[in-house]
Structures are given as structure tokens and as C-alpha cells.
Amino acid sequence: MTNNAPCRKDLLCLINRVSFAVDDVKLFLDTHPCDANALAYFHEYSKLRNQALKEYAKYYGPLTIDTTMTSCTDRWNWINEPWPWQEGGC
Amino acid sequence: MQNYHQNNCGCRQTTDYGRYSSTQYVSRPQATPCCDREDSLDGMPLAMAYVPWQIWQRIYEAEKGFCRGTIFEELDKPFHGMGGCNR
Amino acid sequence: MWNYEKRLQYPVKITQTNPKIAQVIISQFGGPDGELAASMRYLSQRYTMPYREVIGTLTDIGTEEWVHGSYQ
């Protein structure tokens, strides 16, 4: 296919890091719902996360049910290996 | 007769309570202080738990936050053993 | 309800298995004061919680503790 596919491991690394940032700021926002700085941070990292998830799904298969649209056009590859507990899954 | 009294700081220093009968308890001033540690909560009301309100500050870069397990530098408190002493 | 993501929150690479450590980890997760029990309490207590901030916190922390189960 295309030659400029991003490295799978690097992309998954990025997804892990930005997703964790989203997880942590989400907890902060639960108790600080009007904090403008936290909201801005959330939007920035959420955007990065969604872009990275879409890109991952395009080249390597979906990680979420919402990115299956990018990936499973002629086959339901949601069920493809690796699953997280398998070799290469994380 | 000396009583060995294990106090909360576990320093196990002995204090001499002096002789006492079953009806009377006399304590003597202690020859050496039991615990010389400074208490940063000195003067605060006893038996109160507190959780100060967190504010948005000192946020780690995403890479560092991921490795430390928190994006908040103020919540980055690695365990160093009991009493912070690597025991 | 919950979404599933096909990844671990933090990568795991086990070079040498150790049944003793595994036993400790499982007891921490599944025991009476384990994370699974805590998660169930958080998720159950949401329904009678009068403050939306606390509902959010209980939901998100309860969810987070579930993730730890996936490491089992």
C-alpha cells in the first residue's frame, strides 16, 4: 500500500501517552468542571488521541469500536490478532 | 521498676514511670525526651483529616506523566518505604 | 455503559514468570479490600450520590479500577 505508513509501535506509544493524559485530566475535570486551563488541555490531547486512533486504524486495524469505520470496510477485522494479552498486542 | 513503653514513633526508648501502687499513678519527668522529631502539624487540632483543594499547576509533559503514572507533579509521590526511609 | 479499547493502558513485558508475585498481585486485586471490590462499590454508589461532581468521580475511578482487571 502506501510507503509512508507510520511505525506501528511508535503510533501505539503515542496513543498510550496521550490517552493517559486524557484519563488523568478527566479525573481533574470531574471535580473542577469550570477550570479553563484543564478544559483546554483536555481538548488538545483529546484531538491528538482521536487523530492517532484514526491513523492507527487505517494502517493496523481498529483499537476502538468507533474507529472500525476507518478500517473494516470489506472485512470485520476488529476480531483480528493481536489482542492486548497476545504477542505484539501492547 | 522500669516499664518498656513502645510509643507511636517506635523508637522504643524507655521511660521511667516510677513506682506506683494499684490506686495511684505517678509519672516522673522523663530523663531524656522520647521523640525529638519536629511536627509540621504542631498546633493543629487533633484527629482531623484534611485534603487541600487541588489547583491546575505543574503539569508534566505527556511522556513524563505516562512514565510517572500521573500528569500532576504534586501527586508524583513514589513510595520510599515506611517513614520514607527505604526500610 | 462502557467502551472497550484493544490495548493495555500501560505496556507489559514479562521476561520471567513468577507464580509467587502473581499470587500477591491477584490477592491485591481480588481480595476483600481489593481493587475489584472497590470498583464495584464506586460504581454502585453513584446512583444515590447527590452531587454530579462525585458521580463523575465515582464513575471514572470505578472504570479505572476495572482496567486493572484486564491486567489479570
Strand-residue fraction of chain B? Answer: under 5%
How is the main sheet of chain A built? Answer: none
Q: What's the total count of β strands of chain A?
A: 0
The total count of strands of chain B amounts to 0
Offer a concise description of the structure.
The complex is a heterotrimer of chains A (90), B (87) and C (72). Chain B is largely without helices or strands and 87 residues long.
Folded structure, characterized:
The complex is a heterotrimer of chains A (90), B (87) and C (72). The mean pLDDT of chain A is 91. Chain A has helices at residues 8-31, 36-60, 68-71. Chain A is built from three helices and no strands. In chain A, helix 1 runs antiparallel to helix 2 (36-60). The longest helix of chain A is centred in the middle third of the chain and has 25 residues, at 36-60. By secondary structure, chain B is largely without helices or strands. Chain B has a domain at 47-77. Chain B is built from one helix and no strands. Chain B has one helix at 62-68. Chain B is elongated. In chain B, 6% of the residues are buried. Chain C has 72 residues and is an all-alpha fold. Chain C is 58% helix and 0% strand. Chain C is flat. The mean pLDDT of chain C is 88. The A-C interface holds A 12, 15-16, 19-20, 23, 26-27, 30-31, 33, 62-66, 78, 83-84, 89-90 and C 3-12, 53, 56-57, 60-61, 64, 70.
Task: Using brief descriptors, characterize the structure shown.
heterotrimer, B: 87 residues, little secondary structure, 8% helix, disordered N terminus, C: 72 residues, mainly alpha, 58% helix
